[in-house]
Specification:
By secondary structure, the protein is of the alpha+beta class. The chain contains eight helices and eleven strands. It has two domains: 5-146; 149-298, no CATH class. The radius of gyration is 24 Å and the shape is elongated.
Length: 300
């Protein structure tokens, strides 16, 4: 059987592009597309090298980790491991669909070279298998994401605020001071906390040299605070962020005593609340979003 490495490389590159961009959609990390193209190129090059030098297959895991770092940047060991696992899951799904179509069309006419399946597989079939696998991935994550909703209680002194938060795998935001993960919350969901903030803050301050304006309305002034037209309230801080497709912005940060997850009863102390001025859910199904680092990635 004659093998054209350039054709195999092109086919594999198309498939790797589909896999990595599918993962990017699942992770809500669609920025820096050039990095994902480079990562796909590296994967495809390694695939070809395996055909020529099968002994390098032992480096597959290292290449997978290296590819995730290229595609999504450095985000901590825990996130890289999850990215690699997701990459393999999507790869198996894409590979299964492709192999099924290849077996159906070629009626088993394929070869195994150095542990790698090679068969007559046209570009058009490759594209069809990629589309089908992408649809499966989209349906899976859509249904899965519906169920990753947690009910949490923000504890700040004697103030308790109950909200519902949604897992957003693309939320890797951390505050710049102590590198703590951030749970983004609508200002409307924490209005009671903002209204009573000065009452609690006053009880914490022992120095008589600090003047507190108890009449200041943080809830009403939050837009002015985030735009830099009003001073940040004592005990709060600004958290810079950049969302995909949007300009840079600021969140109003506050460090609660701890976060209580109602479903599991777990407490999280090393978490920061980032208050935004917009609604996060059109249907009001949730009032905040948390990332993989903040509440154990929803595994409660």
């Amino acid at each position: 059987m004659i093998i054209y490495l350039d054709v195999i490389f092109l086919e594999n590159l198309i498939m790797n592009l589909a896999i990595i961009f599918s993962e990017a959609i699942c992770l809500n990390a669609n920025d820096k597309k050039i990095r994902k193209i480079i990562a796909s190129f590296v994967c495809s090059l390694f695939y070809i090298l395996q055909l020529v030098f099968p002994q390098i297959s032992i480096f597959q895991l290292i290449i997978a980790i290296f590819t995730m770092v290229i595609a999504f940047g450095k985000s901590g060991l825990k996130n890289v491991i999850k990215q690699v696992l997701l990459f393999y899951f999507i790869s198996f799904l894409f590979g299964g669909v492709s192999f099924a179509l290849m077996s159906l069309i070629n009626r088993g006419n394929y070869s195994i070279i150095n542990g790698i399946i090679v068969g007559k597989f046209g570009i058009e079939i490759l594209i069809v298998s990629g589309i089908l696998a992408f649809v499966f991935v989209a349906i899976f994550f859509k249904n899965r994401k519906r169920h990753i909703l947690n009910n949490i209680v923000i504890i700040f002194g004697k103030i308790e605020v109950k909200i519902r938060v949604l897992l957003d795998t693309g939320n890797l935001l951390r505050e710049p001071f102590k590198n703590r993960p951030v749970i983004v919350v609508e200002k409307y969901a924490v209005k009671d906390l903002l209204d009573k903030y000065w009452i609690f803050q006053k009880s914490k301050i022992a120095s008589g040299n600090i003047v507190i304006n108890e009449n200041e309305n943080i809830f009403e002034d939050i837009d002015l605070i985030l735009s830099g037209n009003k001073e940040v309230p004592l005990g709060m801080f600004l958290i810079p962020y950049k969302s995909v497709g949007n300009a840079r912005g600021m969140l109003l940060g506050i460090a609660p005593d701890y976060i209580l997850v109602k479903e599991s009863g777990r407490k999280y102390e090393n978490v920061v609340i980032g208050i935004c001025s917009d609604y996060l859910s059109e249907g009001g199904n949730y009032n905040g979003i948390f990332g993989l680092d903040s509440l154990d990635g929803g595994s409660i």
